[in-house]
């Protein structure tokens, strides 16, 4: 916090750990955990730093996974809403900016389609998993995540927002997908990718239903919202956080869906990092991260035009390096300076073009170990 204050930061986005507040996911409160966040928030305010609190960043109390398989069970909606309400009640006198989830798509896709993340569930065709179904579980999990988000927002709006004068939203990851060629097939492939990526979550929150692309492809494997759930989900945000790092080319592979269905295979697209031998942009250290500022501009303008120009915060943006650079090079980090210069310039252009962007958070304050 002292470092941030010395650097004249005016805001800091942090996450609250559900299990640090409710070790069992519900029931008894861990007062030491509550005291920790009270100290953190109070010190931020003392230093003139506005807290932006996120309620979930991939983590789920183990007890709920063991009790009812966590995000796969509808019971998680009520338990998450109760946890969220406790946070609103306890910290909301000082925290005026709330986010329910950080990158819920990653939870559903990497946790239940390929098993890269906890709880490591997938079909055998898509990963080294002991249990799971990549054709159905990612969609069930995403559905429960959306309902959990909407239920928390509903609690906040009904009981706390007017008095506390805050706002609430969600953080969504969004890679920009550019057609590899001008062909109709590649343009449709890029749009499928956008629908299955950011549209999976944002479309229901704006329009009350999943994108038509997903409905047509996933069919009865895609859960449906009840009439009451549509009312709760539609419009369930005051602001949208976008985590945007990179851009890829998309093309139509012109192949039939595989025998073993899954969330990623449902996209039926090909990924490319270059066009005619020219990389889409300079690569950072991570294999997936390319420096493509124009992709940020297109992503922000896409949200403006397709989703009614909501209030947007660019909530994550940055690049990594091998981690073995010298102190001298680290103090004259022109590679990272150029990355931020390009992306901030693209964001400024989006604002000039009418996008309702109100803030920017760099990722990250300190070195991290999980970039690759």
From TrEMBL:
SUPFAM superfamilies: (Trans)glycosidases (SSF51445). GO terms for molecular function: beta-glucosidase activity. It comes from the Eukaryota. GO terms for biological process: carbohydrate metabolic process. Coiled coil: none annotated. Belongs to the glycosyl hydrolase 1 family. This is Beta glucosidase 13. The lineage of its organism: Eukaryota, Viridiplantae, Streptophyta, Embryophyta, Tracheophyta.
């Amino acid at each position: 916090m002292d470092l941030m204050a010395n650097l004249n930061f005016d805001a800091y986005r942090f996450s609250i750990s559900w299990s640090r507040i409710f070790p069992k996911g519900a029931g008894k409160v861990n007062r030491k955990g509550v005291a920790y966040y009270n100290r953190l928030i109070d010190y931020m305010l003392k230093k003139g730093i506005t807290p932006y609190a996120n309620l979930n960043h991939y983590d789920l109390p183990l007890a709920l996974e063991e009790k009812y398989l966590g995000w796969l069970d509808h019971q998680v909606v009520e338990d998450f809403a109760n946890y969220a309400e406790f946070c609103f009640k306890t910290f909301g006198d000082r925290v005026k900016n709330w986010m329910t989830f950080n990158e819920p798509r990653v939870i559903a896709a990497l946790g239940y389609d390929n098993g890269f993340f906890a709880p490591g569930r997938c079909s055998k065709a898509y990963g080294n998993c002991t249990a799971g179904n990549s054709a159905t579980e990612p969609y069930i999990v995403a559905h429960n995540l959306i309902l959990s988000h909407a239920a928390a927002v509903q609690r906040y709006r009904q009981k706390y927002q007017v008095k506390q004068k805050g706002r609430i939203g969600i953080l969504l990851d969004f890679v920009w997908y550019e057609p590899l060629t001008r062909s109709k097939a590649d343009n449709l492939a890029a749009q499928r990718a956008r629908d299955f990526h950011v549209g999976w979550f944002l479309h229901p929150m704006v329009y009350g239903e999943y994108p038509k692309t997903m409905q047509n492809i996933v069919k009865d494997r895609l859960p449906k919202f009840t009439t009451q759930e549509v009312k709760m989900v539609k419009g369930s945000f005051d602001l949208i956080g976008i985590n945007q790092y990179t851009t890829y080319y998309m093309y139509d592979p012109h192949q039939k869906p595989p025998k073993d269905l899954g969330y990623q295979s449902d996209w039926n697209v090909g990924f490319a990092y270059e066009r005619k031998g020219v990389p889409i942009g300079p690569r950072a250290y991570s294999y997936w991260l390319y420096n493509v500022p124009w992709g940020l501009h297109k992503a922000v303008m896409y949200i403006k035009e397709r989703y009614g120009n909501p209030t947007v915060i660019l909530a994550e943006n940055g690049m990594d390096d091998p981690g073995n650079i010298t102190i001298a090079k680290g103090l004259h980090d022109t590679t990272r300076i150029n990355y931020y210069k390009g992306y901030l310039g693209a964001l400024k252009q989006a604002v000039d073009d009418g996008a309702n962007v109100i803030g920017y958070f760099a990722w990250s304050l300190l070195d991290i170990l999980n970039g690759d």
